[in-house]
Amino acid sequence: MAMPTFDPLHPELLKDKQRALRDGFALPLTLRVHRALSWLLRAHREEEDLDTRFIHLWIGFNAAYAGDLERALEDDEGEGRRPGAATERERFDGFFCDLVRLDTGGRLYKALWTRFPQEIRILLDNRYVFAPFWKHHGGLPGGAGWEITFEAAKRAANVALAAGDTPVVLSILFDRLYVLRNQLLHGGATWNSAANRSQVRDGAAILGHLLPLFIDLMMDNPDEDWAMPMYPVIEE
User: Fold this and answer.
1) Which long-range contacts (CB under 8 A, 24 or more apart) does 111-120 make?
2) What is the CB neighbour count within 10 angstroms for residue 28?
3) What is the spatial distance between Cα 27 and Cα 49, in angstroms, rounded to a whole number?
4) Residue 152 CB: number of other CB atoms within 10 A?
5) What is the helix (H) or strand (E) element at residue 67, kind and residue range?
6) Tens of pLDDT, residues 181-232
7) Does position 85 have pLDDT exceeding 50, yes or no?
8) How far apart are CA 162 and CA 148, in angstroms?
9) How far is residue 126 CA from its own chain's centroid?
10) What does the pLDDT read at residue 197?
């Protein structure tokens, strides 16, 4: 469902807010918000192609939570993970904890509880976006007993929702969205396939609502120590 143009989280209104506030942003926040908004605005124009919409939204999410340049270069060079380095999943879990700490009005919890409870439960109940399910079918470590871990993750999400533990809910939810992201970006799905329509539709709807909220919370907290994102602008 399209976001009404008077909604303060509408991408165009967020862009207006960014223009009004950006002179007060430090460079790391400037880059994160500017890049995330550019992909959010592009995703907003993609009304029919849900695969493309989801990919644009995920890139916008990447731009928002960002990461350190050293880690990005090591990934590109295939040298493996340096000692003590955070995985990508650990980095965006940290991002969720930061946002929830800054979200004094409980906007994220309200979004999860009131806006998308049904879609979230359907996604959590979908084995095709559960990583151990695919590890099991690929004969990979971590796939044994996937049914048990699947049910445990669903119970953990329901307990966290009931307790208002928003970081845990976001972490479990984005575990599922991350599998969907991998399927699309790594060629593990057919474009516009009927086989994964429900998860792409719901994933795009959920991410399309949460990403504007993430960006808005970041802009409302310019004094937070936002780390410099990957690939900063280099002036030559």
Assistant:
1) 111/209, 111/210, 111/213, 112/161, 112/166, 112/169, 112/170, 112/173, 113/161, 115/209, 116/202, 116/205, 116/206, 116/209, 117/161, 119/202, 119/205, 119/206, 120/157, 120/169, 120/173, 120/206
2) 16
3) 33
4) 11
5) none
6) 999 999 888 888 887 788 999 999 999 999 999 999 999 999 999 988 888 8
7) no
8) 21
9) 18
10) 84
Q: What share of the chain is helix, strand, coil (3-state, %, to 5)?
A: 70, 0, 30
> What is the number of alpha carbons within 13 Å of residue 203 lying toward its C-beta?
32
Asked if residue 32 lies in contact with residue 197, where contact means CB atoms within 8 angstroms, the answer is no
In sequence order, the 6+-apart residues with CB closer than 8 A to the CB of 221 are: 102
Alpha helices (H) in 115-165, listed in sequence order: 117-124, 131-137, 146-163
For position 73, what pLDDT does the model report? 45
- Structural tokens at position 47: 């009304």
Q: How confident is the model over 130-178, as pLDDT tens digits?
A: 888 889 888 888 888 899 998 998 898 889 888 889 999 999 999 999 9
Collect all residues with Cβ–Cβ distance below 8 Å to 234 and sequence separation of at least 6: none
**From residue 181, how far is each of 23, 51, 174, 207 by CA, in Å?**
34, 10, 10, 11
Kindly give, in sequence order, each residue whose CB lies less than 8 Å from that of residue 96, ignoring residues fewer than 6 positions away.
166, 167, 170, 171, 174
pTM of this structure? 0.88
Taking the C-alpha atoms of residue 210 and residue 217, their distance in angstroms, rounded to an integer, is 11
Instruction: Report d(CA 117, CA 227) in Å as an integer.
Output: 32
Interatomic CA distance for residues 11 and 3, integer angstroms: 9
